[in-house]
Each structure stands twice: as structure tokens, then as C-alpha cells.
Amino acid sequence: MGAGPAGPGPMATPGATREVAFVALGSNLPGPRGSPREAVLAALAALDDLPGTRRVARSRLYHTQPLGGPAGQPDYVNAVARLETTLPPKSLLEALQGLEAAWGRQRVERWGPRTLDLDLLVHGARRLDREGLCLPHPRLAERDFVILPLLELAPDLEVPGLGPLARLAEGCPMRGAEPLPEASW
Predict the structure, then answer these.
(1) Any catalytic annotation for residue 119?
(2) Terminus of the chain with fewer CB atoms < 10 Å: N or C?
(3) pTM for the whole thing?
């Protein structure tokens, strides 16, 4: 359920190792690509244009209240995409940050409102803890707006170093992430 159609994405070098990666998407400000919903949908499509990357599935869209950040910011639209990629984690993260910049993302305030937020959640079985890149994403297990759509795409996922996604979901604080009706996509 919830997995959108696979995109045609350009896969790079034949024979290159393909990894499964999961990316969280979110927006709560209008920007150059329209409303937050339109921004998330356009970003899902744009993932297919990343080098060596193909979007193979996407979750439903979710309506969520902001978690942290300044009071009074608008609610979010969130989703998760499943990718196959030949890009190493740092290159994929840089490509995602390029998409954010193209959508008008400005990093002014931590957890502040944004036109587009793309978080690399999981990249194969890798565990990394480096400046600017931690895998799996360090707050993955704390966010219902990540856990719920991720469960749609990979209910049997073993999150590297954290264990089964289903077990993480049991311990995740549920803050009211709600799927949007399909008609609103």
C-alpha cells in the first residue's frame, strides 16, 4: 500500500553497486514549486533525475504538525521515498541538498520552516557518524512522520544499528501524523 509508481531514473555505470536508500521529504512553506504539497510531489519526481538514482517507491503524503523550532510555523506535508542508487552516501546527500537549494531552502533556523527538507534516512547497511552526515538518520526513530511512511515502504526493514523498523515504530512517540487523502495529491 502507498508505494507510488517507479520512476525511470537514470542509472549510472552498468555493473555499479546499487544500494537501497530511503529519503524523507517535507515542506511547510510555499516556494518556487508552489504549495508544500506541490513541492513534495515535485521533489519526489525530481529524485529520478539524480545521477545514478531511481525512485522505486514512495509513501503516501502525510500532514504533520511541526516538531521543535519556532512557535507558530505552518504544518508540514511529509513523505518518504525508496531509492536505488549508485551514489555513495555523501554524494547522495550533496545531490539532495542541491534539490533543496533549487526549491529555495534557506538554512536560517534549526527546525524552522522550510520550502523543502530532504533527509537521508538509510543508505544500504551503512552506519556513519561524520560531520554533516550520520547514518541512519539520528532522529529517525523519534519521528512518526518518518516512521509511518517508512513502514509503508519497508515494513521488514532492519535499520542498521537500531534493529527492526517495526520495533522502532512501537517505541516512537506518535504526534498525530495523518495520511492525506489520495484526492489531495
Answers:
(1) yes
(2) N
(3) 0.88
